[in-house]
Amino acid sequence: MARFRLSEIPFDVAALRAELLDARVGGYASFEGWVRDHNDGRAVTGLRYEAYAAMAEAEGERILDEACSRFDILDARCVHRTGDLAIGELAVWVGVSAAHRDAAFAACRFVIDEVKSRVPIWKHERYAEGDAGWLHPSD
Amino acid sequence: MARFRLSEIPFDVAALRAELLDARVGGYASFEGWVRDHNDGRAVTGLRYEAYAAMAEAEGERILDEACSRFDILDARCVHRTGDLAIGELAVWVGVSAAHRDAAFAACRFVIDEVKSRVPIWKHERYAEGDAGWLHPSD
Amino acid sequence: MSAHVTVLYFASLRDFAEVESESFDTQAPDLRVLYLELRARHGFPLPVERLRVAVDGAFARWEDAPRDGSEIAFIPPVSGG
Amino acid sequence: MSAHVTVLYFASLRDFAEVESESFDTQAPDLRVLYLELRARHGFPLPVERLRVAVDGAFARWEDAPRDGSEIAFIPPVSGG
């Protein structure tokens, strides 16, 4: 089963979390990114994520494979939304299971950082002033 | 409302998470401790958590207050089970909401570390060999 | 100088004391001496260096004198989480 | 030496190109020159230094030659998460 997935529709965190739990798990760390109502001091009314889907899935899978080999964890998963999202909607979820919390936290942080820097997904924000634009961070 | 709670019965993470989400939240980090089937190389069949309840609640609340003042977060919560737990049961949950992920991760880690070192809760493990004992870690 | 105190026992201390709590008058000058007296009576294996002490639900200092009417807990190393 | 390639455009590049993809023959010696040609044609504001390039779904090097039949994507700075 793929560890990384794109989802065009809202997805259920409880079901994803349940897939990670087994008797060996002592620590589960997760991160969720939600659409917030502001960014860089501007009021945001909603946004859209666009992905280069085939490559995003392959690159996301590589990141989760790297997490599993670099850290002493049991499993790691990530789901990223695409399409139109409203304020308060879930944009990305990362879940990591491990015997101990150190590895769970470190791997969870690694996955979200790598996803944000390497996976070809772009955010298009709509602002309260009526304009909109793609985010292409300088770093 | 109390940010830290003890629970004698299994509790629902989804409901707790939902309490933390609002339009300002960009990042949500959580940690869960689950009862695993081994500890220090020994097969574990189940465990019991005992708390000095009044003090645990007060100390837990202090930890969450400290997290809210030390880190740039929106809110933080923690629930810790007491009583008998089977393998795979949820023992502790920490949830932190923030505008950005750095603070969410740092505060989540701070809370679980402080809870484990300061809150008067003790674990009593039952082993597959039939014996049992209190865990009083040396550090 | 005598103080009436209630002492709470948790985890391994309770297993040795065989009670959850006990109330009594003590002449101990401070909480350290009180623990040492109780350790001798109940056979607690944990030395005072591995414990913390709390009075009325907040951490206290070993050199504090037992306060009349207070609730004292000797806190073995915790293992929550 | 001519190579038939398909170029995919995403995010702000697509807004400028006004198409999702285009297929054509190119004589560009490498992917950097190919981008510079397309930048001139479509008016892309992003300089090559801010992009990465992918061929057939994997990151590639700017000095690679366009392969006949390949799918090329110029990847603007990503902003997922």
TrEMBL record, chains A, B:
E.C. numbers: 2.8.1.12
Highest taxon of source: Bacteria
Subunit annotation: Heterotetramer of 2 MoaD subunits and 2 MoaE subunits. Also stable as homodimer. The enzyme changes between these two forms during catalysis.
InterPro entries in alphabetical order: MoaE_sf, Mopterin_biosynth_MoaE
Keywords, alphabetical: Molybdenum cofactor biosynthesis
Pathway listed: Cofactor biosynthesis; molybdopterin biosynthesis
Entry's family note: Belongs to the MoaE family.
Reaction(s) catalysed by this chain's protein: 2 [molybdopterin-synthase sulfur-carrier protein]-C-terminal-Gly-aminoethanethioate + cyclic pyranopterin phosphate + H2O = molybdopterin + 2 [molybdopterin-synthase sulfur-carrier protein]-C-terminal Gly-Gly + 2 H(+)
Alphabetized Gene3D superfamilies for the sequence: Molybdopterin biosynthesis MoaE subunit
Alphabetized Pfam families for the sequence: MoaE (PF02391)
PANTHER family named in the record: MOLYBDOPTERIN SYNTHASE RELATED (PTHR23404)
Name assigned to this protein: Molybdopterin synthase catalytic subunit
Automatic annotation (TrEMBL), chains C, D:
Keywords tagged on the record: Nucleotide-binding
Keyword Nucleotide-binding: yes
Pfam families: ThiS
Keyword Transferase tagged: no
Family: Belongs to the MoaD family.
Protein name as it appears in the record: Molybdopterin synthase sulfur carrier subunit
Organism this protein belongs to: Noviluteimonas lactosilytica
